[in-house]
Amino acid sequence: MDYAISVDGRLAGWTILDPPKARLRIFDLASGRTVSQIPLDTTDMGSDDASGVRFSPDNRAAVYSVLRNGGRTLLYQPLDGSAPHMLFDPAPEVIPDFGWSRSGKQLAVVRQKPSSDVVLIKDQQEKGSDF
Length: 131
Hints:
Blueprint: E1 2-5, E2 11-16, E3 23-28, E4 34-39, E5 54-55, E6 61-68, E7 71-78, E8 85-86, E9 94-100, E10 107-112
Antiparallel strand pairs: 1-2, 2-3, 3-4, 5-6, 6-7, 7-8, 9-10
């Protein structure tokens, strides 16, 4: 379960990943009442290294990392239940974190590109024999 607090501090959102009915539940913090429940497309939310759900600066949407077309992007899911949309084209990097400027006009995204190398180590004393 992941959670977020809205910018104005009035709402809280929890992701509930109970397959097959994953959803984002939005609560009014003053009353404790559920304001809305939005179905989440978790088939492509992906791995543990993906960023969690956040509120948009205007508190009108939940934003979270998804895997689309072989890369990661941020999905903007309006709280009114209308169709979500991608904030930018997918890229093959992991998005472990993101956040908006105080004005809400700029978005910073941390991207990590996994890499791996293979190294063959040979014992020079025993020429011709591999491990």
